[in-house]
Write a structure and sequence with these properties.
This protein is α+β, with helices and mostly antiparallel strands. It has five helices and three strands, in the order ααβααββα. Helix 1 packs across helix 5.
C-alpha cells in the first residue's frame, strides 16, 4: 500500500469529522452560539459519553474549541477553521486558481 501524502491526511481528518450526521447537527447547533455538552445532548439525543466523543472528533479536526466552566464543558465553533479548510482543500486539490461557476437559479 502506498502512503498517502500528509496534505491529504489533513483533509481527511476534517472530511471524516463532517461525515457523521450527529456531528453535523452539533455544528449546526453551535453555529447559533456556544453550547454546553448538555445542550448538545438535548440537540442530538445521544448519551453524554457519545456526545463528548463526537466533540472530541470535532476538536481534533480543529472545528470546535472547548473550555471548562465549573462542571460543564462549553463548546464553540471556530468559524475561521472552516474558511481555512476550504482554502487549504482548494490548494491541495489544485483548485486554488480556478473560479467556481455561479449557481443557477432553480426554475
Amino acid at each position: 500500500m502506498i502512503d498517502k501524502p500528509e496534505e491529504f491526511r489533513e483533509l481527511r481528518i476534517v472530511h471524516k469529522a463532517l461525515a457523521d450526521v450527529n456531528r453535523l447537527r452539533m455544528i449546526r447547533r453551535l453555529a447559533g452560539g456556544d453550547a454546553s455538552v448538555t445542550d448538545l445532548i438535548e440537540e442530538v439525543g445521544l448519551s453524554q459519553p457519545l456526545v463528548s466523543w463526537h466533540v472530541g472528533r470535532l476538536r481534533a479536526a480543529g472545528l470546535v474549541e472547548t473550555r471548562r466552566k465549573g462542571r460543564e464543558t462549553l463548546c464553540r465553533l471556530v468559524p475561521a477553521a472552516f474558511e481555512a479548510f476550504v482554502a487549504r482543500e482548494r490548494d491541495v486539490l489544485g483548485l486554488a486558481g480556478t473560479e467556481t461557476p455561479p449557481q443557477s437559479a432553480a426554475s
